[in-house]
Amino acid sequence: MSINRYVKDYRLIEEFDAKGHLRTTYKYIGKDWYYVFPKEQVVPAKIRCTAACAVSWILFVTALVPVSSSMHTLYIALPFAFTALAAGLLTQVVVTVFRTKEPMEHRHADRLNVRIPLSAVLLMAFAGISLLGVLVNLIRGIELTAGDAVFIPCAAALVLCGCFVFFQRKPLSMEER
Question: In this structure, is residue 95 part of a structural domain?
Fold first, then answer.
């Protein structure tokens, strides 16, 4: 998303301050954006997304703590490393959800409407690809270690966290009014 996308939503205001310096500020003149659902449904969805974000970080770190043979395989370790990017995107969504209040600006609403499902799908995809890599290792006959007994459930739970966040996108969706 380019910042130019939102240029028409702002007006530049140039004025002189008390010391005679020219100050340029901007004012939002675009349409206001609100949650589609009532507050009674939005607040619990915010809390559930925050909890899912925290759980996903805990699962990600927990999967990396024990030494596992899976993490020594590039086609498992690389997608799992990208899970951190998806969890980071989810963290950014949670911060945006709690920082912005209604009415929201167009750029904040776009960020929520696009990034909630995107972060959920990426979390599911990267953790799921890692799980498929473990399945490939099993088919190839590579012996699993005790660390894999921690890695596999954590990666599966990350996929479930992504599914859970994906279903929270509806109560957190925005519309202009």
Answer: yes
